[in-house]
Design brief:
With about 280 residues, the chain is α+β, with helices and mostly antiparallel strands. The protein has two domains: about 5-125, Sufe protein. Chain: A, CATH 3.90.1010; about 135-275, 2-Layer Sandwich (GMP Synthetase, Chain A, domain 3), CATH 3.30.300.130. About 50% of the residues lie in helices and about 20% in strands. It has eleven helices and eight strands. Strand 4 and strand 5 form a beta hairpin. Helix 2 crosses helix 5 and helix 8 (about 175-200) packs antiparallel against helix 9 (about 205-220). The radius of gyration is 21 Å and the shape is elongated.
């Protein structure tokens, strides 16, 4: 049984702005009925004091309670916004508005944010590019490599479980999990390299970041776990454990015998690793 907030329950039982706008100025259609979730978002746009504002918005969805609540919440968030303001709305805004969503239901908020971007693009006569379309990683839910990359990068994901929560990839036959692990490792390595470029001269810290992203994180991810770097404070490295590692009774043993041991062997024997964040 999912632990839903009162606000999620309210938006599910009493959805706002459900329905269709026959003469909509923009329509965003996302999801896939074959995958169990689909959302169509309709917007009307009016010019008010020289600004284009969303004067009306409605939705039709096929999905679970979270999908209905997320779509309902999205319509309440964006109604009255300028288009430029609405373009900045993310799935995190939807989740925060609802007082949280169960982790396995985060993808419902992602679907809402995608539908909004598509509706705005439709109104403006733009075609949103779908990078990597056709490069399907998860065949069960038709999730592309670029979608996974974007989710990992934008939301600081470090585990397969988190990717599944955001995209549904890996949530059925699990055949794509090795590819998801590879993508996570590559994206985290790219982010670590970018961070080291921003702080030139600190090769030691850069090496720590690369090892956590390219070697240690993916190794933990292979067992459903993960970690995120919180801080490097001299010889002290602070990490937040995620996924299965966060719930493991031997988490401190893992940190000591694997994370810390690896960093000491590969970087500096004076390094200590602590769990924080």
């Amino acid at each position: 049984m999912w632990d839903y907030s009162d606000k999620v329950k309210d938006h599910f039982l009493n959805p706002r702005n459900a329905g269709e706008i026959p003469d909509a100025d923009g329509i965003g259609d996302t999801g896939n009925l074959r995958c169990g979730d689909a959302l169509k978002l309709y917007i009307k746009v009016e010019e008010v004091n020289g600004e284009e504002r969303i004067s009306d918005v409605k939705f039709q969805t096929f999905g679970c309670a979270s999908a209905i609540a997320a779509a309902s919440a999205l319509t309440e968030i964006v109604k009255g916004m300028t288009l430029d303001e609405a373009k900045q709305v993310t799935n995190r805004d939807i989740v925060e508005y609802l007082g949280g969503l169960p982790a396995p239901k985060i993808h419902c908020s992602v679907m809402g944010a995608e539908a909004l971007q598509l509706a705005i693009a439709d109104y403006r006569g733009e075609t949103l590019e779908v990078p990597g379309a056709g490069d399907i990683v998860c065949k069960c839910f038709e999730v592309t490599e670029q979608q996974i990359r974007d989710s990992v990068a934008d939301n600081n994901l470090t585990t397969v479980e988190q990717v599944t929560n955001y995209t549904k990839a890996g949530g059925a036959c699990t055949e794509c999990i090795p590819d998801i692990q590879r993508i996570i490792g590559e994206v985290l390595a790219e982010k670590a390299a970018a961070t080291s470029d921003e702080t030139p001269g600190n090769e030691r810290d850069a090496k720590i970041r690369r090892l956590l992203a390219e070697q240690i994180g993916p190794a933990l991810g292979a067992h459903g776990g993960g970690l995120q770097l919180v801080a490097i404070e001299g010889d002290k490295v602070v990490v937040a454990m995620q996924g299965a590692c966060a719930m493991c009774a031997n988490v401190h043993g893992t940190v000591r015998d694997f994370v810390q041991k690896t960093l000491r062997e590969e970087v500096d024997e004076s390094i200590s690793v602590e769990v924080g964040g």
